Amino acid sequence: MDYFSLTIFSFTCILILQISQSSVASQSPLETYIVHVDMPANQILTESQDLETWYQSYLPTTLVNSNEESRMVYSYHNVFKGFAAKLTAEEVKDMEKMDGFLSATPQSVYQLHTTHSPSFLGLQKATGLWESSKYGEGIVVCVFDTGIKPDHPSFSDQGMSPPPATWKGECEFNSAACNNKLVGARSFSIGGGTPLDEDGHGTHTAGTAVGNFVSGASVYGLGKGVAAGIAPLAHLAVYKVCTFGCSESDILAGMDKAIDDGCNVLSMSLGAGPRPYYIDNIAIGAYKAMEKGIVVSCSAGNSGPYMATVANEAPWIMTVGASTIDRRFKAIVVLGNKVEFIGESVFQPGDINSSELSLVYPGRNTSISPFCSSSSLNGTDVRKKIVVCLVGGGVSRVGKGRAVKNAGGAAMIIVSSPSYANSTFAEAHVLPAAHVGYADGLKIINYIRSSSTPTASIMFNGTTIGDSRAPVMAAFSSRGPAPISPGLLKPDITAPGMNIVAAWPYSVENITNTKSTFNVLSGTSMSCPHISGVAALLKSVHPDWSPAAIKSAMMTTADVVNLGGNPIEDETFLPADIFATGAGHVNPSRANNPGLIYDLQPEDYIPFLCGLNYTEQQLTSIVQRKVDCSTSIIDTQLNYPSMSVILGSSQQTYTRKVTNVGEASSSYKVYIEQPVGVDVKVNPTTLNFSEGTKTLTYQVTFTRSKSNVKADFAQGSLKWISTKHSSTKHAPSPCNFLVIYTTCSYISIAQQTETGEVKSSLETYIVHVNKPVDQSFESNEESRILHAYRHAISGFAVKLTKEDVKEMEKKDGFISARQQNMYSLKTTHSPSFLGLNMNHGYWQDSNYGEGMIIGLLDTGITSGHPSFGDEDMPPPPSKWKGKCASGIACNNKLIGARNFVNKSEPPIDLYGHGTHTSSTAAGNFVRNANVFGQAKGIASGIAPRAHLAMYKVCLDLCAENVISYSIGGGSKPFSEDSLTIGAFRAAQKGIFVSCAAGNEGPYSSTLSNEAPWVLTVGASTIDRQLRATVVLGNRKEFEGQTAFQPNNFPRKRLPLVYPGAEDDEAVYCGCGSLNNTDVTGKIVVSYNAGNISRIEKGQTVKDAGGAAMILINVEDEGYTTMSDMHVIPASHVSFSAGQKIMAYLSSNSKPKATIKFKGTIVGVQNSPSITHFSSRGPNLASPGILKPDTVGPGLSILAAWPDLKNNTHTKSTFSMDTGTSMACPHLSGVAALLKRSHPDWSPAAIKSAIMTTADTLNRNGNQIMDERKKPANVFALGAGHVYPFSGNDPGLVYDIQPKDYIPYLCGLGYNDTQVRMIVQENVKCSTITSIPEAQLNYPSFSVKLHSGHKVYTRTVTNVGEANSTYGHVINNVPGVDIELSPTQLVFTKVNQKLTYQITFRRKSSTPAASSYVEGAIIWVSEHHGVRSPISVQLEHLK
Prior knowledge:
Elements lengths: L1 H20 L9 E7 L10 H9 L4 H4 L7 E5 L5 E6 L1 H7 L5 E6 L10 H4 L7 H5 L7 E6 L36 E6 L13 H10 L3 E6 L2 E6 L7 E6 L7 H14 L3 E4 L12 H11 L3 E5 L18 E6 L3 E9 L4 E5 L12 E4 L25 E5 L6 H10 L4 E5 L17 E4 L1 H13 L4 E11 L27 E4 L3 E4 L14 E4 L2 H18 L5 H9 L22 H4 L6 H4 L4 E2 L7 H7 L4 H8 L19 E3 L6 E9 L5 E8 L4 E6 L2 E4 L5 E10 L11 E6 L4 E6 L6 E5 L20 E7 L15 E5 L5 E6 L1 H7 L5 E6 L4 E2 L4 H4 L7 H5 L7 E6 L35 E6 L13 H10 L3 E6 L2 E6 L7 E6 L9 E4 L1 E2 L9 H11 L3 E5 L18 E6 L3 E9 L4 E5 L12 E4 L25 E5 L6 H10 L4 E5 L17 E4 L1 H13 L4 E11 L27 E4 L3 E4 L13 E4 ...
Parallel strand pairs: 5-9, 5-10, 6-9, 10-11, 11-12, 12-20, 15-16, 16-17, 17-18, 38-42, 38-43, 39-42, 43-45, 45-46, 46-54, 49-50, 50-51, 51-52, 58-65
Antiparallel strand pairs: 1-3, 1-4, 2-3, 7-8, 13-14, 13-19, 15-19, 21-22, 23-25, 24-32, 25-29, 26-28, 26-30, 27-29, 30-31, 31-32, 33-35, 33-36, 34-35, 37-44, 40-41, 47-48, 47-53, 49-53, 55-56, 57-59, 59-63, 60-62, 60-64, 61-63, 64-65
Protein name: Serine protease
GO molecular function, one term: serine-type endopeptidase activity
GO cellular component, one term: extracellular region
């Protein structure tokens, strides 16, 4: 349907262009107008015919009844009421006087928006392979060619990350020329002294492979759209090895350097004819590159359509043929007899005279003139005529046009040669031209010969898309079979190589005021970089695939039919054989998931080379070492993704080994399309793969049939088919060849867890010490040291008595020793609620956090849970140095696990909390997750492709990107809080630390983890509820929640009882409290209080014989209700609902009720709201820092759980849990996504991005409410509710480097020792200019204001558009005047920093009483709003 729609759209564009260019001269020219009219008054027009008549009435009356061709172009019935017609300006003036006329405007001609070959290959922005591969990010493609034009916009590094750490290349331009896109540029001696491209070929091929997105690209206004390479965010390195040719020595020198530099893909659009591998220096260099894991892509050559002309045929090279795309730059030749022929040209002038001109063919007179050389037209009058020229004669096609133009010709028709048949080129000609096929050209010449006055015109139809014949093999594309190794089928594959728009070093249109210059070129030089780009995409997604695996994936998924569903054709429009197509036309999306691959390791080529009977010296020249040829194979036996067999009278059998890279458990059956005259058998006929069986071998036997076949070769196919994949092998054979070629086509139908007596007891102390200088220590005493710290602090944890500590205080270097604090725990719809959706938007853009490591400090982990499975997970990054304790099944998801409570035990989660928080942060995708059948769906963490490391109550650090700890111990000075100190050390290492705010709300100043270098996270609701509706005997209903929702709960009303009315001990349903109350068969009402868990209350009711429970909030809990996993039917209702239920109980002698269980409800409109338990500010440890920073989902969060007692038959166990402990890992996951997208951002920048883009409105568009359904203040809400999508593009960030905290800490009044304990370095506050805490460059403001005013500064860094201007909006703070200076921030480049001052002044009219007021400032640009919340404490005025 997409192709059909596109074709119709293109055809419409053609019509419009023809109409506008073939208009007839009049008083003023005819133009197509779009006319809007009003419906006629007092008439109802229901039929199309009625509308047509009405529209016709607007046309000039002389036209309606005349025989002149209708000028009505279209009649519109649905989009609006009106029509399109060809009119003069005078006719429009007359039409304006008619009743019902609304408007008439000349039509606009819209350009198609793409340079198209990526789109033709199925690569679309923000979807599919482009998205999953992040457009090739992190891959370095190295192009060997004529150099590069470095300042072309195709090589801009906008949106580019820095090159990978493995990159070691050099830039021989000046430092400004290279960037994060162009990461290397070298030139080699014979190739010239600078990498600058003086030819254009290298710039074009580089742009084709990895050019960045460039808007408005076109050539003479055609092909206009967004230009992009196949891997637009891959890095580029250029090796100039060609000028007027490509020296072998230069090529080898370049390849040698490229291997050292760290290239991932080599793209080489160069080559010579077939030659033995040992004297083919490209093959030799490519072999070494392949050994290093580098993919080498080479052009097949431009010597087609002749057989056995393929170049670069070594099996370790990807050999690429060329074909067309479905775009054409049409130039239509119209003969005097009205016969039309479609040709092509890029130069399509808008002012060409559309009238017919004399048509001349100089070849009628001489044998030289048909080719239109510079001197051949001297004897022919071509002035103001259209000249027909044949391709050939040693004159380029553009050169023929120059000759015609110089001789006075008006235009040119180029005719293809017989061998090139229907292959035509769109080129930047110097005069109006059309290149037509050979058959059409003969018809034109015959018309000339048969007419005394032949005439013609050329109509230019611009860019058209949707050619159903595409792809068609280009005539010039070199063909197989491979002369050097006939047992290998070459070329391997075909890709777009005809009329490709890409970067060019200068303007072919002679435009001097732009660097955005492009050109159209054709050749296998153009198809090769397409495959190089695809290889980069695949390498990005599958970094562990070998070059052979990547080649196999492309070959075995290639298309063998065109857009029309017919076999791919060659230049004659007949089905192309596989010596032209190879495996077929590349299909990048299918190559990303091939099912099976034919893999080869470097050592597998040795027997193949030995089988070629090369001498020891010849072999050594290829593999660069001595080779043992005791084992050899013939070329057909190589485990290649194709077969080429020379078959005589004897049958032949070959083996192939396939590796399963698809679903672990899968079965494939064979299907054979028999080649004519050959019987093909496969054994076995079924391949069964499992988790333990990833590779299988099969045999293929070829036997000549008894039928007499006269053909030189035959081709067929062999296909492995599973319910999820189809794996195809094609087969041809030339002369005495039989070629059997194997591909895997992918068909997905898949749908897609010490003891001793001492004076005082031993306690664990945290000891801080200065680092020793040039000292080492030894001791034979059994150590009482529990942990020695290298990163988090300078010090250790040790078991000591108080007396030991007294002695230790006397030692040099001692700073402090404190007893360790015991921190309390701050105990899947939430990704979707945060706007994170699979295969879309920011989740996809960030690659789901891939490559990030989240370290969690918690109760341990359940390693066998499917949330921690490593399906689709890459290995951890090379920087990872963590360990996995024995007894834990680590993998590519769970990459580290340690137990710091008891080192002799594995860090198994015996509580559940750590498993839950881990899966919330980074759990992998698990289908059918649910709790008691509720909230069913796909469970995942916020960063499902991030790696996890679990530290069971640990303070040490490894190499994480994000640390998440959902623990805390209330407010305390930073110098006495080991978690805060460890977090500072993490921040110094660039590690983001996310912490739970605490569960002591809704009371003020109850926060934990208040330091400015951690993200302090409060808890909010999501828009999902597990509804349980209480229905009273008076029919009134009250909504509540529970996860346990039985299907068999009786609908009839049961007796309702409140035990607390008779027994004070029974108010809270504590254990045994109902022994004196008859609750059998009744619904029991209990308050949610009394230090008894909600589930324990239900257990008490159940033990006493109760039928169900209604749990009522106390007043402070307001409307916060929870979906707990109760052991009894229950409903947790709000305080307001509870009061009404209690009133009903007290007013009714026989109260009754029931509970209706409504299941999972999604779309609660007042979400998010702040939970009652979420701890509140202001910040006691540092009142000048506004805390919490942000809020995230923390109520009734479904995530992994170690075990459910009644569900022991599965590891896929989940639970609901509630607390800021649940909110914290949500933000940890978001931080991982942001770190993945912006690896250079500091922890403070990531925090700023989260805070300044947070939401302050709920789903209804109203202010976020608290548990009372009143607007939440900044001490509950912080900056607002996290919104990951906006956080990815904040516009501006408030950045802080670790050293910036030192003046802040000194300003808090800490002494030198206390500051040194925190920052782990010697500090003298007397030598430092301290700052008030509100002066720290924080993304929020917390100000104490007495009388007068206070002034603070902030510095913002531009991480948005380079040229951007920000104005400001102030959300008024009651009683406070706020001024900003400057009032506007103007940026001219990315990462530019600007500073502003903000002044707070208390108004004279403000009441004298102490109070808190709040507001915000927002810096606003065209694309961004950067919001900073403000809290002002108005101090009491005496």
